[in-house]
Design goal:
Helix content is 9%, strand content 35%. The strands form 21 sheets. Strands 57, 58, 59, 60 and 61 form a 5-stranded antiparallel beta sheet that branches. A 4-stranded antiparallel beta sheet has the order 2-34-33-32, with no helix packed on it. It folds into 4 domains: 351 residues, Methylamine Dehydrogenase, Chain H; 101 residues, Sandwich (Immunoglobulin-like); 374 residues, YVTN repeat-like/Quinoprotein amine dehydrogenase (Methylamine Dehydrogenase, Chain H, 7 Propeller), CATH 2.130.10; 73 residues, no CATH class. The chain is mostly beta strands.
C-alpha cells in the first residue's frame, strides 16, 4: 500500500511533517530548579494492587490506529472524579481510546472497587476522549457525560454518551433522549449555566475528522465556519432536554479543540468560555454578553497564545480575586529534546497566519495573568512554566496547603512524531512524495520516549519552582488526562493520571502527614436546577491571606474534578471570613470558621446588595485622554526585513523609535513636544496652549522624512534663550556611511519656528541611539553626547559615539581629545549627565545592550571609564533607560534603570550568563551571530541545527544528524579557537533595578519588584504621584520585534511603583492607579500642563498611536 505524505495532505498528529519545506528548529533557554532534599516526597505513587485501580489505556498501533490516519491517535483518555453515591467519598471514572472505560467506587482509605460492569458505564470499546461529571437532570446525583470520536464507518458509534445516575450505583445512557448525543468527533465538554436561568447548559468541544494542515482549508473554515466542523453549544430547556444554540449563541467556529474551561474571566457575573485549539487554529475567548450570546475577544484580551494549545485551566493563582489562565503546548524542557524534537514555524507561515487574523502564536506554554481590566499579560517565561515538553493536562491546586495554588502538568506522547532525524530518514524513503512501505514499519521508525509529569510549587511572587522530583512525581510515562480530589478525606488533594500503555497513576498526597499546614474544604448546596452551585465564587480571608476560587468542574485535558472547593490555609487555624457569591449574584457570609473541616454552605438566606470582597477602594490617579486629545500622532514603521542580511539576529534593530523631545519651544509657559518618525515619515511638533490642547506645528523636519528618527532633544544650542531641536538619525535599514545616518539640528527662530542648521554639526554617519546635553566643560553653553546604537548589518559590534563641544552654536567632535573611552563604549541606549563622584562637574552614565551600567568620570574635561571602580562591571545586560532621583531622601542621587526583565526567552546571571559571539565562523566574508545559553551547567547554542546551518552551511556537514548537534556544546560546534577570537559579550543581569547611592562613592543595586520585570522597561518617570512626600516611579515598556522563535515581549501594561522614601517600592494594580500603557513603548515623558496643575504623560509606541494620559493631582492617595 502507498501512503501519501504530500504537503498539506496528511499530517502527524498536530504538526505537519514539513517534509518538503524547511522549518526552523526551536531553541529556547530553560531554567529548572533542582533540589536534592532528603525529605520524604509530598506524593506517594500507589501500586495498582494497593489501590485496586488497574485501568490501563492500552493503545495498539495498527494500519488503522496511528497518527497518520488519525492525528489524535496518541492523545489518550481522561479522568473524572466525583461522588456518585453521595457518601462523601470521591469516585473515579477513566476513559480509554481502545479499551473499556472504567468506573471505580471509593471504599475509603485509598481503596477502590471496579463497578463498571454493574454500573453499565463501560461503553463499547469505542474511541472515547473527554469525560465530565455533572448533575444534568437536577436530582442531586452526579451524572457522567462521555465524549467520543474516530469512527467514520458508524457515525452513531462516535456519538457522545450521557450516563444518568439512577441512584443505586447503576446508570442509564440517555444522550439521545436529552438531545446531546453529538456525533461530531468531540474532545471534551463543560457544563455551566451560561444564561443564569438556574440550570446547566453544555458546551461540546470538537476536533477535525480529517488530517490536514492545508492553510487554505483552514482559512476557508476559519472565515466561514460551518456547523459540521464547529464546537457545539446546547441550552438546557429545563425539561430534561437540550437545544443546539451554537449559531444563536455566536459560538459557530472552526478549530481543533483540545481544551475548554468556563469561568467568569472579567468578573461581570456571567460565565465565559476559553477554548484551546491545536495547531495553527487560534484559541478563542468567548465573553458572555449576558443576553444569550458570546463574543470572541481573544485579540483584545490576549496578546499572544500558544501555537499548539492543549489543556487549559482558569484559576486565581496569585490571590488577587481574578481568574488567570494556563494553556499547555509542547516546548521541550531540556536542550537535547528541544534540538531534536521541536520545530520552529517558518517566518513566512508565522506572519501569514497573523495577517489572516489568527493571532501571534508561540510554541510554548502560556500563563496569562489577569490584569483586571479585561486583558491578560502572558508571564509564563518569568514564572518558569513555559517549557514542560509535550504537555496535555494542566491545572492549579494547592497541593501543599500553604495558601498558594500550585501547578500540575501531564506529559508525554507515545511517539516522538516531531523527531527531526526521523523526518530525515523518512524523506530518504519517499518516492515522489509517497511512502511505499508498511505502516507498521513507518510507525516503528518513530522513537518512543516516556517522560515524567511536572508539578510546580507556587512561590507567591508570580513565579513557580519545579518540584517534580521533590514531590515524588518522577515516573516516566505517556500521560494525558488528570484530575485532583481529596480521595482519602484527610485534607489534602490527591492526584489521578490517565496513562497510555501503563496503569493509571494514583498519587496519595502526604501533606497532612508531613506538613503543619491547615485547610478548609467547602461543599455548596445551590438552588433547584443547579444543586451543586456550579459557577459560584468563594473567597476566604485568614489574616492577611485572602483567596478566591470559582466552582467549575471541567479542567485541564479531557478531565473534570469533584464539585468541592479546597483552600490551603498555611499556618492559619481559623478563617476570619468566608464569602460565597452565588451564580445569581446573592451572597452568603460566614465568620470565624475553624480550619481543617468540610464546611457545607446552603444558599438559603443569601442576601443581595452586599459589597464585593475584592472591590477596589481607590480612586485612580491616571485617566487616558488619548481619544479626546488633539495629539494623535501615529508612528508608522517602514517595511524592512533585518533578517535578510543577519538571519541570526536576536531581534530587529530597525525599530528603536519613536522618541520624544520635551520643552516649551514657543515660550507660553506650557510644555510642547516633538515625536520622531520612522523612515518615510516626518516627525511632528505639538504646541500646547493653556487649556491642555495641542496643535501640530510644521517645520523643516517634514522635508527630512527619509531619515529614521531615533532620538530627540530640545536644548538651547545657541544661547539665545529658546529651545532648539536635535534629532538623532539611525536605523538598520541604511548602508554604513549613508548620508541618512547624519544627525540634524533645527534652530529655533523664536515663537516655535525652526530652520535646519546645515553647518552646525560635524559629519556623523553613525546609526545613533540617544542624545543628552550638559555643560560638561563649565563654559556656559550646552555640549552634547550622542550615543551610537549600532553598525548597520554588523550587530553586535559597537559603533562610534560622539562628545560634541559647543562653540557658539557650532559643534565639534572632541571625543578623541577627551579620552578614547567614549569613542565606542557599546550599543548605547541612554546617556545621563550626573555628578556621581561629587566633584561638582558632570560625569556621564551610559546604558546599552550588551553593556554594563557604565560610569565615565569627568576629570577636567577628560572622561575615563570607571565602571569597575564603582562596582558595576558585573551588570552587563540589555539596558534601555536610566533616570536619577533622590528616592531615599538622603540628599544624594539614586538611580533607576530599565532592563530586559525576566519574562523573556533569554536568562542571565553571574554564574550562567547569556553569551553572544560574532565572527566569520564559516569564512564566507560575512559575520555570523552565535548566542549561547546554559542547560544543566553546559553552554549550548541557542539556535538549532536548521536555522544555524542556513547561515553557516558547514554545520550540516559537521553534524549530519540532529542527535549529534543536540549533544554537542557550543565549543564542540564552533571550536575553541574560533570562539576565542570572536567578538564576545556576556549578559549577567536582566532585571530592571534600583541603584541606591550609599555615599562615599559606593552603590548597591537590587531588582525592582517582580511586577516590574514582566516586560522590558523602556520608559521611566520619577514624581510624587500620590502626594505623600515620597518619590514614586512610573514605568512602561514591551518589545514586539524579537525574532519570531523568541516571541514578542508584550506583557507590559505600565506600572506605578509607590515609594516609601526609603528606597522601597510598592506595585499598584491597574484598577488602583488607572495607568494602562500596553503598547510597544519606546519612550515616555511628563509634560507640565493644564491650568489646574495636572500634568500629562505622553507614551510613544512603536508602529502605533501615542497615548496621552492625564495625572489627576489631588487624587485619593493610595496606601503605601
Amino acid at each position: 500500500m502507498k501512503y501519501s505524505y504530500q504537503k498539506n495532505t496528511f499530517s502527524i498528529c498536530r504538526i505537519s511533517l514539513f517534509i518538503f519545506s524547511l522549518v526552523l528548529l526551536q531553541a529556547c533557554n530553560n531554567s529548572t530548579e533542582t533540589n536534592n532534599s532528603s525529605e520524604s516526597p509530598l506524593f506517594s505513587l500507589l501500586e495498582a494492587d494497593e489501590s485496586g485501580i488497574h485501568f490501563n489505556n492500552v493503545l495498539q498501533e495498527s494500519p488503522s490506529v496511528n497518527t497518520y490516519v488519525y492525528f489524535n491517535a496518541y492523545n489518550g483518555g481522561g479522568v473524572a472524579i466525583g461522588d456518585i453515591n453521595n457518601d462523601n467519598l470521591p469516585d473515579i471514572y477513566f476513559t480509554g481510546s481502545m479499551v473499556e472505560n472504567k468506573l471505580y467506587l471509593n471504599k475509603g482509605n485509598m481503596q477502590f472497587e471496579d463497578i463498571t460492569s454493574n454500573a453499565g458505564v463501560g461503553g463499547r470499546n469505542d474511541w472515547t476522549t473527554g469525560v465530565t461529571m455533572a448533575d444534568v437532570n437536577n436530582d442531586g446525583l452526579l451524572d457522567i457525560y462521555v465524549c467520543r470520536a474516530y469512527n467514520n464507518n458508524f457515525p452513531e458509534l462516535a456519538a457522545n454518551l450521557l450516563y444518568i445516575n439512577n441512584g443505586d450505583l447503576t446508570f442509564t445512557e440517555q444522550a439521545q433522549a436529552y438531545g446531546i448525543a453529538d456525533q461530531s468527533w468531540s474532545t471534551h465538554s463543560t457544563f455551566f449555566d451560561y444564561d443564569l436561568d438556574g440550570d446547566l447548559d453544555l458546551y461540546v468541544l470538537n476536533h477535525l475528522k480529517v488530517n490536514t494542515l492545508d492553510h487554505g482549508f483552514s482559512l476557508a473554515n476559519f472565515t466561514n465556519p460551518v456547523h459540521e466542523r464547529s464546537d457545539h453549544f446546547y441550552r438546557n430547556n429545563g425539561n430534561g432536554t437540550f437545544t443546539d444554540v451554537t449559531v444563536e449563541a455566536g459560538v459557530l467556529n472552526y478549530g481543533v479543540g483540545l481544551g475548554v474551561v468556563s469561568g467568569d474571566v472579567n468578573n461581570d457575573g456571567w460565565p465565559d468560555i476559553y477554548v484551546a485549539n491545536d495547531r495553527q487554529e487560534p484559541d478563542i475567548l468567548y465573553i458572555n454578553n449576558g443576553d444569550g450570546t458570546f463574543e470572541n475577544t481573544i485579540h483584545q484580551a490576549v496578546r499572544h497564545t500558544s501555537y499548539s494549545s492543549m489543556g487549559v485551566d482558569l484559576s486565581d493563582f496569585n490571590n488577587d480575586g481574578q481568574l488567570d489562565m494556563m494553556v499547555c503546548d509542547m516546548m521541550a524542557q531540556n536542550n537535547y529534546r528541544r534540538k531534536t524534537q521541536m520545530f520552529g514555524m517558518n517566518p513566512q507561515d508565522f506572519w501569514m497566519i497573523v495577517a489572516d487574523g489568527y493571532h501571534y502564536q508561540y510554541m510554548r506554554n502560556v500563563l496569562q495573568l489577569n490584569n483586571g481590566n479585561g486583558t491578560f499579560s502572558e508571564i509564563g517565561q518569568m514564572a518558569g512554566v513555559a517549557k514542560t515538553d509535550w504537555s496535555w493536562a494542566t491545572f492549579f491546586a494547592d497541593f501543599d496547603n500553604d495558601g498558594l495554588k500550585d501547578l500540575f502538568v501531564s506529559n508525554g506522547i507515545k511517539r516522538d512524531i516531531e523527531d527531526n532525524d526521523f523526518k530525515i530518514e523518512l524523506e530518504k524513503k519517499l518516492k515522489d512524495g509517497y511512502y511505499e512501505g508498511s505502516i507498521e514499519e513507518l510507525v516503528n521508525m518513530m522513537p518512543s520516549n516516556p517522560i515524567p509529569n511536572k508539578i510546580f510549587r507556587n512561590n507567591g511572587d508570580l513565579t513557580f519552582s519545579d518540584k517534580s522530583s521533590d514531590f515524588g512525581i518522577t515516573q516516566p510515562c505517556f500521560s494525558n488526562g488528570a484530575a485532583y480530589a481529596d480521595l482519602d478525606l484527610d485534607g489534602d488533594l490527591d492526584l489521578v493520571v490517565n496513562n497510555i500503555n501503563l496503569t493509571a497513576s494514583v498519587y496519595e498526597n502526604n501533606a497532612r502527614k508531613d506538613l503543619a499546614n491547615n485547610y478548609l474544604q467547602i461543599q455548596l448546596s445551590g438552588e433547584n436546577g443547579n444543586l451543586f452551585a456550579l459557577g459560584a465564587k468563594v473567597s476566604v480571608k485568614s489574616g492577611d491571606l485572602q483567596q478566591h476560587q470559582e466552582l467549575t468542574l471541567t479542567r485541564g485535558f479531557k478531565s473534570s474534578v469533584e464539585p468541592k472547593i479546597h483552600f490551603g490555609l498555611g499556618s492559619h487555624s481559623q478563617v476570619d471570613e468566608v464569602v460565597v457569591t452565588w451564580p445569581d449574584g446573592t451572597q452568603s457570609r460566614l465568620n470565624d470558621i475553624a480550619a481543617n473541616q468540610l464546611l457545607e454552605i446552603d444558599k438559603t438566606g443569601a442576601k443581595e446588595g452586599l459589597p464585593d470582597p475584592w472591590g477596589n477602594k481607590h480612586t485612580p490617579l491616571f485617566t487616558d485622554i488619548s481619544k479626546t486629545s488633539n495629539a494623535d500622532f501615529q508612528h508608522s514603521e517602514n517595511e524592512y526585513d533585518d533578517y535578510l542580511k543577519e538571519s541570526l539576529l536576536p531581534h530587529k534593530t530597525s525599530q528603536f523609535g519613536p522618541k520624544i523631545a520635551l520643552g516649551d519651544v514657543d515660550g507660553n509657559g506650557w510644555d510642547d513636544f516633538f515625536i520622531g518618525g520612522a523612515s518615510g515619515q516626518a516627525g511632528v511638533l505639538y504646541l500646547q496652549n493653556d487649556e491642555s490642547d495641542f496643535r501640530e506645528s510644521s517645520g523643516p523636519w517634514q522635508r527630512d522624512r527619509a531619515y529614521e528618527d531615533i532620538g530627540a532633544l530640545f536644548f538651547d544650542a545657541d544661547n539665545d534663550e529658546d529651545l532648539d531641536l536635535y534629532v538623532v538619525s539611525g536605523g538598520n535599514e541604511f548602508e554604513q556611511d549613508s548620508p541618512l545616518l547624519q544627525d540634524r539640528l533645527y534652530v529655533n527662530l523664536g515663537n516655535g519656528q525652526f530652520e535646519r542648521a546645515t553647518d552646525a554639526l560635524p559629519e556623523m554617519l553613525t546609526s545613533g541611539g540617544c542624545v543628552s546635553a550638559a555643560d560638561y566643560d563649565g563654559d556656559g553653553d550646552l555640549d552634547l553626547f550622542i550615543g551610537g546604537r549600532l553598525i548597520p548589518g554588523q550587530y553586535p559590534f559597537a559603533p562610534r559615539s560622539y562628545l560634541l563641544q559647543n562653540d557658539n552654536g557650532k559643534f565639534t567632535d572632541v571625543t578623541a581629545e577627551t579620552g578614547n573611552d567614549l569613542l565606542s563604549p557599546g550599543l548605547v541606549t541612554t546617556a545621563l549627565w550626573t555628578d556621581f563622584d561629587k566633584d561638582e562637574d558632570l560625569d556621564l552614565i551610559l546604558t546599552g545592550e550588551w553593556m554594563p551600567i557604565s560610569f565615565f568620570e569627568n576629570n577636567n574635561g577628560n572622561f575615563t571609564n570607571q565602571t569597575e571602580k564603582y562596582g558595576f562591571d558585573h551588570t552587563t545586560g540589555w539596558w534601555n533607560i536610566i533616570i536619577e532621583e533622590d528616592f531615599d531622601g538622603d540628599g544624594d542621587m539614586d538611580y533607576v534603570a530599565g532592563n530586559l526583565g525576566k519574562n523573556y526567552k533569554y536568562k542571565a546571571s553571574d554564574y550562567e550568563p547569556l553569551h553572544i559571539y560574532c565572527s566569520d565562523f564559516d569564512k564566507t566574508g560575512t559575520y555570523d551571530i552565535v548566542l549561547g545559553y546554559y542547560d544543566d551547567g553546559t553552554l549550548f547554542p541557542v539556535r538549532g541545527r536548521q536555522c544555524s546551518s542556513e547561515q553557516m552551511p558547514f554545520l550540516k556537514e559537521k553534524f549530519p544528524t540532529y542527535d549529534q548537534f543536540a549533544k554537542a556544546n557550543i565549543n564542540d560546534i564552533y571550536g575553541d579557537e574560533a570562539l576565542e577570537s570572536a567578538l564576545h559579550y556576556q549578559a549577567k543581569l536582566f532585571t530592571s533595578s534600583y541603584i541606591e547611592n550609599q555615599g562615599n562613592g559606593t552603590y548597591s543595586i537590587r531588582p525592582l519588584p517582580i511586577q516590574a520585570q514582566i516586560a522590558p522597561v523602556q520608559g521611566l518617570i520619577s514624581r510624587d504621584f500620590n502626594s505623600d512626600g515620597n518619590m514614586d516611579i512610573l514605568l512602561s515598556g514591551n518589545f514586539h520585534v524579537s525574532e519570531m522563535e523568541t516571541g514578542r515581549a508584550d506583557a507590559g501594561n505600565g506600572l506605578l511603583l509607590l515609594g516609601d522614601g526609603k528606597g522601597n517600592f510598592q506595585p499598584t494594580k491597574i484598577s488602583e492607579s488607572g495607568f494602562y500603557a500596553p503598547g510597544d513603548v519606546r519612550d515616555m515623558v511628563l509634560l507640565n500642563s493644564d491650568s489646574e496643575g495636572s500634568p500629562l504623560i505622553i507614551v510613544a509606541n512603536n508602529n502605533d498611536r501615542i497615548q496621552v494620559i492625564k495625572h489627576e493631582e489631588g487624587g485619593v492617595q493610595l496606601e503605601n
